[in-house]
Amino acid sequence: MLAQDNNTSNVAYQDEHTRFTIISDGTIRMEWQKDGKSVNSPSFVAVERNYAPAEFQVHDSDGWIEITTSKFTLKYKKDSGKFTASNLAIDSKNITPSFHWKPGDTNAGNLKGTFRTLDGYDGDIFVGNGNDNGDHKPMPIEDGILSTDGWTLIDDSKGLLFDDSEWAWVTERPSGEGQDWYFMAYGHNYKKALKDFTTFAGKVPLPPRYAFGYWWSRYWSYSDDELRDLTAKFDAYDIPLDVLVIDMDWHYVNPGRGGWTGYTWNRSLFPNPAQFLQYLKGKKLQVTLNLHPAGGIEPYEERYKDMANWMGMDPSSKQRIDYCGSDKRFMSGWLNTILRPMEKEGVDFWWLDWQQDMFDRHIKTLNNTWWLNYVLFSDMERNRTTRPLLYHRWGGLGNHRYQIGFSGDSYSTWKTLEFLPYFNSTASNVLYGYWSHDLGGHQFAKGVSELDKELFVRWMQFGAFSPIMRTHSMKSSAMNKEPWVFNQEYLGVLRNTIRQRYQIAPYTYTMARKTYDEGISLCRPMYYDYPEDKEAYQFKKQYMFGDEMIIAPVTSPMVNGFATTKVWLPAGNDWYEWHTGTLLKSGQTVERVFTLDEYPVYVKAGAILPFYGDVKNLHGNDETVRFTLFPGGNGSFSFYEDNGNDQTYQKQYARTQVSSVRDENTLTVNIGERKGNYQGMPKKRNYSIDILGSAPAVRVTVNGKEAAYSYDGTELKLSISLPDSNCKRAYTVKVTYDSNQPEINDGLYGKFKRMKKSFVEMRYRNASIDYIEELGDMETTGRAVTYDNSSFADRINEFRKNYDSLPELLKKQRLNENDIRWFLQSIHWQKN
Hints:
Blueprint: E1 11-14, E2 18-24, E3 27-33, E4 57-61, E5 64-68, E6 72-77, E7 88-92, E8 100-101, E9 121-122, E10 125-126, E11 151-155, E12 161-162, E13 170-171, E14 178-185, H1 190-201, E15 214-218, H2 224-236, E16 243-246, H3 273-282, E17 286-291, H4 304-311, H5 328-345, E18 349-352, H6 368-383, E19 390-391, E20 405-406, H7 414-427, E21 435-436, H8 453-464, E22 469-471, H9 488-503, H10 505-518, E23 523-524, H11 535-538, E24 543-545, E25 549-551, E26 563-569, E27 575-577, E28 582-584, E29 588-594, E30 601-604, E31 608-612, E32 625-629, E33 635-641, E34 654-663, E35 666-671, E36 675-676, E37 684-692, E38 699-702, E39 705-706, E40 710-712, E41 717-726, E42 731-736, H12 748-765, H13 773-779, H14 781-787, H15 792-804, H16 806-812, H17 817-826
Parallel strand pairs: 15-16, 15-22, 16-17, 17-18, 18-19, 20-21, 32-37
Antiparallel strand pairs: 1-2, 2-3, 3-14, 4-5, 5-6, 6-7, 7-8, 9-10, 11-14, 12-13, 23-24, 24-25, 25-30, 26-29, 27-28, 27-30, 31-32, 33-34, 34-35, 34-36, 35-42, 37-41, 38-39, 38-42, 40-41
Helix pairs in contact: 4-5, 8-9, 13-15
Protein name: DUF5110 domain-containing protein
Domain Glycoside hydrolase family 31 TIM barrel: 205-511
GO molecular function, one term: hydrolase activity, hydrolyzing O-glycosyl compounds
């Protein structure tokens, strides 16, 4: 049951027809009802009716009511009828930009929200599905709840309501003329606006931790054996996997036994579904099945008799049971007799695909997509102890409460990939922060019949830093995206990309908790954090990934082995280009180049982030946590953990505060004692501290005692292990460095990687080559300092000298001009 009553202490003014309720210092509900009957029932958008006490003042003078908070002043002429420009106005207070608002004003600066589907769109242009038969118009992205104007009006006057039954159900608003508005005043404090929105529209639920792993999906007539072989190959190639998506061929699709809609397992492909699902459970995989509910329940379905009896129908009549979303009896029967038995066998959640009409047959304004999302999600909330999860289309404002989104059948083009970063981050403006896309594209563009493997890799790299990482494709052998079908180079990049997704999972999950707490999505536009910088609105392709990272996706092919990306680095702190090891100054726009295995990920200088090491899935609560320090300053982070898949996370969770301070030659890292509790919480955990862009240490202590460490010169990384650590204890780690160390955070790590690869490739161009001493030493610099830390400064300085002289050294090697040109180009050589 949803809350039905208003918090009367926040009602600032009420008369026979009008009521003003303060939701927060920046948000007010404004109601006018001709019949005088205010609406207390929750609506589809505004599900919360009880608000925390707010501070406000009310003045009644000369027939006008004036309501003042710290953010706005509202004036309303008493007994003057419905809200108009002549009887209602709101002025901003203590916010920038200032505004004077009255009914009818246009919100010209709306920053947009999201759209239901990518079906038929190449990028943001509608070209149709397969036949280039679209109108070639831009995607009509819906308005969001944020605006550069600093205010937003949400008109809920015609919005559907929930009733007061135990399982809240749709009901129409009482007939009669009325206005039900929500006004938000926030200036450019977009984060405050999002949190205020959750106060009346509800929070974004935290998905189970496994949702942040890798999802395998493909439109393919898989059999039990083929899926077993598939999962075995993921193991054999050491590629993590958490979610197995099975498209519609799990059920019969041939006429007379099935179709788009179906609920009976195809026993030719799956002889024993229950045993198949248990096999997947044994591999710690979550399973979702595709549904197209629009066709109702046909008499040939396995559980037709149970459903007919539920509906009070005679099963022998063989009449189809039509789908009707607003029919509570039908929906309850559908869930209890059709879906629940499969859930008990091992189906974890459902993929709601598109087929149904836009609106309900009985309630003409009831959006079928919106309602289906609510029904399935709320049913899982009521009938499970595990977290609800749903994989579905966007249904409209308020659907942020039912994640995850499915964006439909996208085209496999660079243009679509270029559009997706904006599409993802802008959806956060309606709190729809968990879009899931068909990585690599679902279908070929007109005239294309072969998967562009470079495009696929770049799409996967984008997916690793997206809300959900899920591949999918049309039913075509040419669209096979299994990583092992690609050559060794591409397989290696794909595997490392998926593994990096798992590496960053503790950080991602911590940021997802922030989405629940504050309404700030994992992928968000730059203007949330930098609202007064014009570049934050201009650079639409890049986005914040949580609080500490900027992602500037590669969205065009490589030229001569390098892709070029332009990125804006906001002022306030320097930024560390993770994949090349380059510390870049803030407050500038730079153009950077990347090889296939590099990606534009920028981390705040000095950040300290929680990562995993080598994990196979995200089920465990006791994995080693590697607190990773990025160079360039001091940092702190509050690491979040919980059970991972229960519904008690709202109150049962734990946090560990970690901080680092650099003072001349000493780095101090503090790991605080864990605070909080949850079911299944480990008492001890293996901690590790990884310091990137680091020289070898002279001395390391943990809580004052000498401690061992390791140094990897190829990655310029210092690692300190704290095994079997009592999480209730605090740990202070001090690292002392030599005072005379060469600069290494200017891209040296990237130079090591690129040169190592080019040295190897040169041997395949000239198998008899014997590198001169200077070049041989360059190739092995990282490994040499790994073996002998004391040689660090000398080897690095020698590498730099030789790097600047590389053209001359290649001539000394007696390479021909083509090989010299190739080698310098392959590493993007530039003199220091």
